[in-house]
Amino acid sequence: xxxxxxxxxxVAGGASAAxxxxxxxxxxxxxxxxxxxPSPASITAVNSGxxxxxxxxVAMTCTKSNGSGSGASATGNPATIGSISAIAFGxxxxxxxxxxGNVTTVPVTPWSIVAQDYTAATGVTKGYIGNVDATVxxxxxxxxxxxxxxxxxxxxxxxxxxxxxxxELTVVSSTGCGVAVPVGAKPTFKGTYxxxxxxxxxxxxxxxx
Length: 209
What we know:
Layout: H1 2-27, E1 33-37, E2 41-47, E3 51-55, E4 58-62, E5 65-71, E6 74-75, E7 79-89, E8 103-107, E9 111-119, E10 124-138, E11 141-154, E12 159-163, E13 169-175, E14 188-196, E15 203-207
């Protein structure tokens, strides 16, 4: 009599484990309510460290970069919680450089700031910069890049870390670049910007109502 009961317990335990595995992914519900503080926020951004666009192993490095835009609370996933209305790469006396020569970048804005996932324990929001569109000139080479770039934003520091992966950005036109920067190339865009809203660091919090 004890053996069937023991077997039943094993079966029941296995079923419970399978049920737990089946429902666990559903419990990890992504954030759908995004609270930006202040909201609306006027945002300025200055680079911390180098900003680097790399194409086919050629690094185009900017030691100076800054931008401005706005942020606001939103609902959805993904959700657009901000907009970059202006961004500059390089500065007077500090041009962006590469092995091919100095680099000039002309962005077409606005670019969007999109939130997708929030970790309360660390205050970090994962997302991406969307609607990226810029024309880059290096000597006689002129190419246009469009797409998006993955990001993380940390509330405690106001640091937006841009860390795009291959395939998020694409060269959609290229003139005078030869095989160095062909159409279809997949650049990467990496660097960190420090956000401020006035004298305060803006925060982003994701939750589910």
